[in-house]
Inverse folding.
């Protein structure tokens, strides 16, 4: 009986170690890319030029493969709201359940007016 509990304890302990190893795996290349992108977002400030924003958003990303770099900005558009024209760049910031293409729901918009950053995030569109 003792032997049974000892063997059972070993199996349970081994399962916990295996489970813990899975939890603490090295981030994937996509996860690292997103982490750096989000860190770069934290460096932005209202009034920066589009060129300055693009430079900040590329910081630390030069070693990533081109297919990842091409995700950001993955989309741009011009929108008119209340008679004002804005340029919106969308940056991929969510791992989600990716299926090989960046999705608008996995992004954060950066909004420019006359070439200057006015705001970023989905809250911009609620104003």
């Amino acid at each position: 009986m003792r032997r049974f509990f000892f063997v059972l304890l070993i199996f349970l302990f081994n399962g916990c170690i295996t489970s813990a190893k899975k939890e603490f795996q090295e981030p994937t290349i996509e996860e690292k890319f997103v982490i750096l992108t989000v860190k770069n977002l934290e460096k932005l400030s209202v009034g920066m030029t589009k060129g300055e924003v693009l430079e900040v958003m590329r910081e630390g990303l030069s070693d990533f493969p081109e297919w990842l770099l091409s995700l950001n900005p993955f989309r741009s558009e011009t929108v008119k709201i209340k008679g004002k024209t804005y340029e919106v760049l969308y940056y991929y910031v969510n791992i989600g359940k990716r299926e090989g293409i960046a999705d608008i729901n996995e992004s954060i918009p950066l909004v420019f007016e006359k070439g200057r950053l006015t705001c970023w995030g989905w809250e911009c569109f609620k104003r």
